[in-house]
Amino acid sequence: MKKIFITILSAALVFMSCQNLEDLNVNTKDPSAVKGETLFSYAQKNVVDQMVGTNVNFNIFRFFTQQWTETTYLDEVNYDIVTRTIPGNHWNTLFRLGLKNLDEATKVLTATPVVLPENSIIRKNKLAEIEIMKVYTWGVLVQTFGNIPYSDALDVTKPTPKYDDAATIYKDLITKLNVAISKLDVSDEGLGAYDNIYQGDASKWLKFANSLKLRMGMVIADYDQPLSKTTVESAVASGVILENADNAALKYMANQPNTNPLYVDLVASGRSDFVPANTLVDAMNALSDPRLPFYMSQVDTSSVANVEKLAYVGGEYGFSNTFSAFSHISKKIQQPTFEGLILDAAETEFLLAEAAERGYSVGGSAEIHYNNGVKASILYWGGSQTSVDAYLATPKVKYTVAASGTTWQQKIGTQAWLALYNRGWEAWQEWVRLDYPVFVAPSTAQSEIPVRLIYPISEQTLNGGAYKAASAAIGGDLVSTKLFFDKH
User: Fold this and answer.
1) Tens digits of per-residue pLDDT, 436-464?
2) Domain limits, the chain
3) CATH number attached to the domain at 34-244+448-475
4) Is the dihedral of CA 115, 116, 118, 121 positive or negative?
């Protein structure tokens, strides 16, 4: 009996020892299973970081619209987009860190049983919010590159995915957005604390989705007017963002790595690479724009004859600029907690102004929406209603198109460009569509101002067959190749 006990005890000790050794192989800081909500949160932050950052390796759209310029290294302001593989970084961030994680979030959430206190409505809202973020991200890629991998893109069994037609993708995205909108139930919440834009507020996600739908409808206005009109009108009928309180903006934190990427690029890096460009500053000075002190600092110009001691002075776009001699990016923008804006009331109102000019039924005149867009922008940045009224009364700002001899494209395009300051990609896209303001490329530029990004070099080397077919289909892999929606 004693021998049996000893044998059993020895076996038990061996079994326990094996268990403990196996436990040591488990990395508790790198879990084998991740919640769908966590995947969404990670993807959301990476997508917004890419859209609002200003690292020259990833996002140089503020240069395309001549809102900012560089001081020392001038490759990017002269449209050199390959030395730092900028297209590849934009592509990879949105595909790999954004869409792939959003896709996995959908799969994980769909496969996970509903557990209290969650209910079926909350689950539906979560999946709808993820889908809306997917549509947003896909839309950015299509508008940036044109034809892209879509139907095969996230399939790991297809390492060389084919490229789909950009217009076909865009129409499918509008369809998917409509489905997601139909599934949102504003009576309950969604992703909650995992959502760093709306904290899962389904009613605000609905406005964001409709505003995104409005934007997408206007993008195709010159390509497919009937679809554009029905898309825009249904979005407006369902409710779009009209107040700054509903803006789609990611909330950043005071400490890295969760600070606004602008803080990392402009402050923590200790670099002095960027200043506001003279193209922007001169235009704002000419209009006595009340947003100037919120966009940039003044500089001492006492050494310059006939110029006030303190003034807003922009660096010459495309050429070397002494950092200390020009206005600087405002302290407001450089705060670590400054929010990352991806869609707002001002943008929505300018889109509605354009829709009204095109004869769409969106309620209100083009002038009303134009004025509302200017107002939303000035108030967002910290201006007063008094400054709004004075600015709108300025002859060159006032929306009397016929009397002023300007077109609605010029009026709306110029004010949208000013309102979309610090939102380089969106400002660039509006310029691509409306062709205003008129920009002049520097004499040292390597190309004309890009209307699209070229495909990543990695696609040429690793997915050559699909790359060649896509390049031929869009008319050549050039920065000057107009995409399907760009008709003017």
Assistant:
1) 999 999 999 999 999 999 999 999 999 99
2) 34-244+448-475
3) 1.25.40.390
4) positive
